[in-house]
TrEMBL record:
Signal peptide: 1-21
Main location: secreted
Annotated protein name in UniProt: Meteorin-like protein
Subcellular location: Secreted
Family: Belongs to the meteorin family.
Lineage top rank: taxon: Eukaryota
Gene name in the database record: LOC105906196
CC annotations in GO: extracellular space
Keywords: Disulfide bond, Hormone, Secreted, Signal
UniProt GO MF annotations: hormone activity
Length: 314
């Protein structure tokens, strides 16, 4: 019976005409409702998303969705196909997501990505873009109770090997030793950068694939999204900022005072330069040198005139 369901679902996606119902959609996000299918509970919708990140929300799921992720690559580029083959897609369901099974479909074959249990845990699953399209199949139900299948997605070029810890894929490029040039560039281009310290959170709060860390910043140089919040005070650069970041298990940072004792003085012996990326709404540590080491390399580059950008280190 289970195999028959698979065969039926794939056949529906390939042979049945897509419904003409109109939904809320743009290049990045899609939102729709299965109630528009009325009696056509076996309808299959084609969905196209063309951004590097976005979301899908399917209310009262019935039938199925075929989600086609298409990156906006220049059509004239000779490297478009090779760039596409290096793109990696990651999905993160909302913890209240339910009512559907999420598969990867290619050539009429289905591979399960997210079942109900994984969705309830908010488990992240990744795959290469050329592995196939997403096939989201509604589970059968007899009542009209509200169900919503919802997840965020992110596409990025696969430059480093990714690892899998506790069932969750993490980027091996995160929180690793960085060269001086990588550190100086990270200050200018990372999703966030600041000076501060790290504290551990309870083990019960640690998700698969990495631990949560509490961050206290004395300086916030940049943040693309609202990761850290201010407790008030004087000028923006003088405020105290707090927030949470994730670190993969291999992250080689010391917690608390940074392992050097004390946090005062110009060099900030107990501080780190904290940089990183936001992945699927979560902040992950990237290059994390001790602040006194960063200050030394920053001033040396400043004297040579090779800094990619300037920040206030006073």
């Amino acid at each position: 019976m289970f195999v028959l369901v698979f065969v039926y679902a794939v056949s529906a996606a390939l042979l049945w005409p897509a419904s003409s119902a109109q939904y809320s959609s743009d290049q990045c996000n899609w939102k729709g409702s299965g109630l528009t299918h009325e009696a056509h509970t076996r309808d299959v919708e084609q969905v196209y998303l063309r951004c590097s990140q976005g979301s899908l929300e399917w209310l009262y799921p019935t039938g199925a969705l075929v989600v086609n992720l298409r990156p906006n690559l220049p059509p004239s580029s000779s490297s478009s196909s090779s760039s596409s083959s290096r793109l990696r897609v990651c999905l993160k369901p909302q913890t209240d997501s339910q009512g559907s099974m999420v598969y990867l479909e290619r050539g009429g074959r289905l591979k399960l990505l997210l079942g109900p249990e994984e969705q309830a845990l908010g488990a992240v699953r990744c795959f290469r873009l050329d592995d196939g399209a997403l096939f989201v199949e509604a589970l059968p139900h007899s009542d009209i109770g509200r169900r919503t299948t919802a997840f965020a997605y992110e596409m990025r070029v696969e430059e480093q090997e990714e690892t899998e810890e506790g069932g969750e894929h993490t980027d091996a490029a995160l929180c690793r030793p960085c060269s001086d040039e990588e550190v100086l560039m990270a200050v200018c281009t990372s999703d966030f950068a600041g000076r501060g310290s790290l504290q551990p959170l309870g083990e019960r709060e640690a998700p698969p694939g990495g631990r949560w860390l509490k961050v206290s910043l004395s300086r916030l140089y940049r943040q693309k999204t609202r990761i850290f919040t201010s407790s008030g005070g004087g000028a923006r650069a003088r405020r105290a900022w707090t927030g949470h970041v994730r670190a993969p298990p291999h992250c080689p940072v010391s917690l608390g005072d940074g392992g050097t004792g004390g946090g005062g003085g110009e060099g900030g012996g107990g501080d780190y330069l904290l940089t990183g990326a936001v992945r699927l709404g979560e902040a992950w540590l990237g290059c994390v040198p001790r602040y006194q080491d960063f200050l030394q390399m920053y001033r040396a580059a400043q004297a040579r005139g090779t800094n990619p950008c300037s920040i206030d280190t006073d």
